[in-house]
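Q: For a teaching session next week I want to show students how multiple molecules come together into a single three-dimensional assembly. I've collected the sequence lines for a complex. Could you give me the predicted structure tokens for the whole thing so I can convert them for display?
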Amino acid sequence: MKAKKSILLLLLIAALLTGCLLNKVTGRKQLSLIQESELQLMATNQYHTFLSEHEVLNPGRSKNAEMVDRVGARISSAITKYYQSQGKGSVLEGYDWEFNTIESKDINAWCMPGGKVVVYTGLLSVTQNETALAIVVGHEIAHAIAKHGSERMSQGMMQQLGGMALQVAISQKPTETQNLFLQSYAIGSQVGALLPWSRQQETEADQYGLIFAAMAGYDPREAIPFWQRMTDLGGGSPPEFLSTHPSDETRLRKLKQFMPEALKYYNQSN
Ligand SMILES: [Zn+2]
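A: Of course. Below is the structure for the complete assembly, covering every listed component.
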């Protein structure tokens, strides 16, 4: 047992030395043991499985789904234009955006690598308007393109699967690998304990999410009342979204710090 632990430790150190990549969005070094293309492939499979198990609303018949589609189209095209103009088109390599709305009382939304987004109708009772929805969608997309899920998945592969390669893990330990994936991307509660995003990941997602919504022409100032409403829902049994995106005064303070920069993008968008 002891030998196994020290081997794991050695593997972890080796991974830390060789498996860190500079993130092009945030400029931060992150543990990255899995190819983005492999993750996107897994995401596409998981996304379609998820959709087949839930009631997906048709944007032609549901005003809510139509709104989610519109927010998604505006934000994804603004982000694509922005990174192309910065010569960083590779940030979105392999992205094939999809936005879907599912009928669910749960207050939740997420984005898988490759741009696979789901909004739960329960969230719309808290967003209350299209601009606040854009704030959340921007935040979730920021988690994906800042590769936060990939970072968590890499850590999990080391800790739970002994640094096994993803393709090997998928074939040898499919259930564990799938659960790790869902946990890493904060998807669903059926896999047990929900993993909250780290404070640093939350701050990054807020910072870039505000900018993404602003670039798409949505007023970033709407983030403050939205997160206030979300924070007020805390307590005994907070919604899923709040357990993975813990919120308090620190978040509101940081959002206010990021506001002047986001407003520059907002003013340019009009
Ligand atoms: Zn978050």
